[in-house]
Design brief:
The complex is a heterodimer. By secondary structure, chain A is α/β, with parallel strands linked by helices. Chain A contains 23 helices and twelve strands. Chain A is elongated, with a radius of gyration of 26 Å. The model of chain A has no long low-confidence stretch (mean pLDDT 96). The relative contact order of chain B is 0.14. By secondary structure, chain B is α/β, with parallel strands linked by helices. The chains are: A alpha/beta, B alpha/beta.
């Protein structure tokens, strides 16, 4: 998709006055985090599991080449095909070729952030193949021609009324001529529409939560079971996954699953957990005749061995955005590209460039709530800070900020001069603020005083001046 | 949360910190805007038997540079702090944010300088946020102070998540005569200050503040307390702009019996 990350501040301005969005976010602020808290409370070993999950992913990343080749060998032995896609364009071409070879007119898709990352739907549609999203949230936003606003709840920015309008608009031509208002009715209608599409599809495309090297399985969790129809009904099943999804064993998958759903939705287990291991075998009652796995790099191998490597541990649970007060204020679309929230603030500059996405790692208070809930303990604030350092090194930081910092640093390293300057500022601010106790406006502090008063200093001088005057111990 | 036992149990007739010389890192905001927080810290430390020294060579902990990506200046300021404070038995900071900078981030700044890294680690190991030092290190459980009214407490982010400051201020506040603590909803959610964040992204900061001040207002408490002056100035400024009659103070001031001075952003008596 076309990034608008460079226009982050404009995006934020719109998001903050979008009534529907703010209504949806108000629910999100309490829902996900409370459910996660309860799930964690019920599992005393959760913190220890987070350590193990982190260690599993670190081990897999340290031996990524080995496990990827092992995975490929297994898939091939099972009769499947593994395709290596260094770039997004490569992945799009590979998948289009598979679809063409299958004579596909429509393909069903289950939710895949990698498919979003490579803008697969547009590419297929431009080449005469109709992609049909089958995850309810993805289906809704596909009808509305919107990108996802959350990595596990793509339509979380919408209210029920908006969904009702969208269905009424698009389903009327299919014979559904009533505008529905009940949640369960909306779901039932989507199910009816999608059931036909499942039966028509020539190719099913799914993502993967994990790729298991030991067995050659791709593993997927959903709460709707849509992926299971998508990967068993069509003749061809294509899995699209990025390279860092590979883990060594089924045992590892079990450990990661124990932290995944709890972190994401507060469920102990997602409703459907499916292991796809090769094409249909002769004794299988159903399954695809052809099985392909497309492995996307798209710049990830370049992160290995760098100070940014920790970002590759991500298992896409969404806990960081569910707990982020910035995300809760502005929603996912404001981030301007595929991945929102704290992990988006770290991944997006890597994938599309820090020049384009430089605002994202800066738009954080470093409150640390994301890191405190991350199931694989990604130090998200630290990684955001690394991006800020790279921006500073490359002179991408705004000149006003650089000049302010230079002045601050000059003073901060000269304590005697610093005392004189702060002493004057203290006296002036205290003097003019003495009546009100605060300022409604201050020169150069518009960012502060637009929304809040600025407290005046106490009278009587700075702490250091008073301490000196009292003869307090200074060494 | 449980606290480690006091390292050296003191006889009951003398304060446990007797003999320790503590370096007070005042913080730039306390120095400039609210010296009473610094003096409250001095009183609490002296009451607990510590000798308090305030080195001249201190300005700021370096966070503005560190969090803006200016690692070079952050290192130079950090080196100045290390030199000024490494000689003390303990270093105490009336802020979780600046305390976290020294105790949590300083060593990382000297990745490529083993000798400075060792010195930064040594300093980090003996640097404490004020409430944590009083309760976890000195074993203080009670203070002699009175504050009439209901208060609510905001857990500032760095103190909470980098230094584990959560139960300690509540333990001490529970001993203040007349004080009733009413917890707000979501006390651990950021207030939207974030240092330069609040002026770089004022609209987002304000949206966060709106939620926070609504949670504060819903408690009906007459006073808001927290342990970080940046967050306190942010929340006080918003409450006052919106005309919410909540007094905003640093926890240390109330614990030190200085709860009667003008609250943050309120005019002082002439």
């Amino acid at each position: 998709m076309q990034s608008t990350a460079h226009a982050f501040k404009d995006n934020v301005e719109h998001a903050l006055v979008d009534g529907n969005l703010q209504q949806s976010l108000a629910l999100l602020k309490v829902g996900f985090s409370e459910r996660r808290r309860q799930a964690v409370e019920r599992l005393p070993e959760f913190e220890a599991l987070r350590d193990r999950a982190r260690d599993i992913k670190n081990h897999a990343l340290a031996h990524l080449d080995f496990y990827l080749e092992a995975f490929e060998a297994k898939v091939t032995a099972l009769g499947g095909h593994v395709h290596w896609a260094p770039t997004a364009q490569d992945a799009r071409d590979i998948i289009l070729d598979i679809c063409r070879e299958a004579g596909a007119r429509t393909v069903t898709k289950s939710k895949s952030m990698i498919a979003e990352e490579i803008a697969l739907n547009d590419h297929l549609a431009a080449n005469g193949i109709e992609p049909v999203e089958t995850d309810l949230g993805e289906y809704i936003i596909q009808l509305r021609r919107e990108p996802p606003s959350h990595i596990i709840a793509p339509a979380v920015h919408l209210t029920k009324d908006q969904v009702a309008d969208t269905f009424f608009e698009h389903h009327r031509k299919l014979g559904f001529d009533k505008r529905l208002t009940e949640r369960s009715d909306l779901v039932a209608e989507a199910r009816q529409v999608l059931r036909r599409r499942f039966q028509e599809a020539d190719v099913g495309i799914t993502g993967a939560n994990f790729l298991v090297a030991e067995t050659g399985s791709s593993m997927l969790v959903t709460n709707e079971g849509n992926a299971d129809l998508g990967n068993t009904l069509p003749r061809v099943h294509v899995v699209i996954a990025s390279i860092e999804k590979v883990i060594p064993t089924l045992e590892d998958a079990a450990t990661l699953l124990r932290v995944l759903a709890r972190s994401a939705t507060g469920q102990e287990w997602s409703s459907y957990t499916t292991f796809n291991t090769g094409p249909k075998r002769p004794e299988d009652p159903d399954g695809p005749a052809h099985y392909h796995v497309v492995l996307l790099d798209n710049g990830r191998s370049g992160v290995l061995g760098t100070q940014m490597q920790d970002m590759l541990r991500c298992i896409r649970c969404g806990a960081c955005m569910n707990h982020c007060p910035v995300y809760a204020a502005i929603g996912g679309h404001a981030y301007g590209w595929v991945y929102p929230g704290p992990i988006g603030a770290v991944l997006t500059p890597q994938l599309i460039g820090v020049e384009e996405a430089g605002n994202l790692p800066n738009a954080s208070t470093f409150c640390g709530r994301c890191e405190s809930v991350c199931p694989v303990r990604i130090p998200l604030p630290k990684l955001m800070r690394h991006w800020r350092e790279r921006e500073f090194e490359r002179h991408l930081t705004p000149a006003s900020v650089r000049q302010g910092l230079a002045l601050w640093a000059f003073l901060a390293r000269r304590p005697a001069l610093y005392r004189r300057v702060t002493g004057i500022a203290n006296r002036v601010l205290a003097l003019f603020g003495r009546v009100a106790g605060r300022y409604a406006w201050l020169p150069l502090a518009g960012g502060w005083t637009r929304y809040r008063d600025f407290p005046a200093p106490q009278r009587g001088g700075t702490f250091h001046a008073q301490w000196r005057a009292r003869g307090g111990a200074r060494r | 949360m449980t606290h480690p036992p006091v390292s050296a149990p003191a006889p009951s007739d003398r304060p446990p910190g007797l003999g320790w010389t503590v370096g007070l890192f005042v913080t730039c905001l306390v120095d400039m805007f609210r010296p009473s927080v610094g003096f409250a810290a001095v009183k609490l430390l002296e009451d607990a038997g510590c000798r308090v020294v305030v080195p001249d060579v201190q300005t700021c902990c370096g966070q503005p540079a560190y969090n803006s990506g200016d690692r070079g200046d952050a290192r130079r300021v950090a080196a100045q702090v290390v030199s000024a404070f490494e000689g003390f038995d303990h270093v105490v900071v009336p802020s979780g944010s600046c305390g976290g900078m020294i105790a949590h981030h300083f060593p990382d700044l000297f990745d490529d300088d083993p000798s400075m890294r060792r010195r930064a680690e040594a300093l980090a190991g003996k640097t404490h946020e004020l409430m944590s030092f009083l309760v976890d290190v000195l074993g203080v459980r009670r203070v002699a102070a009175r504050y009439d009214g209901s208060v609510t407490y905001h857990d500032s982010c760095s103190g909470l998540r980098e230094l584990g400051v959560k139960a300690q201020p509540r333990t001490l506040l529970a001993s203040v005569d007349g004080l009733k603590l009413v917890e707000m909803a979501n006390p651990e959610v950021c207030c939207g200050f974030g240092g330069t964040f609040c002026v770089k992204y004022p609209d987002i900061s304000n949206a966060m503040l709106v939620d926070k001040t609504a949670d504060i207002g819903a408690t009906g408490a007459g006073t808001l307390l927290a342990g970080d002056l940046g967050c306190l100035m942010n929340m006080a400024g918003k409450l006052q702009r919106d005309g919410q009659a909540v007094q905003v103070r640093h926890t240390a001031e109330v614990l030190a019996g200085a709860g009667d001075i003008a609250a943050i952003g309120e005019p002082e008596a002439a």
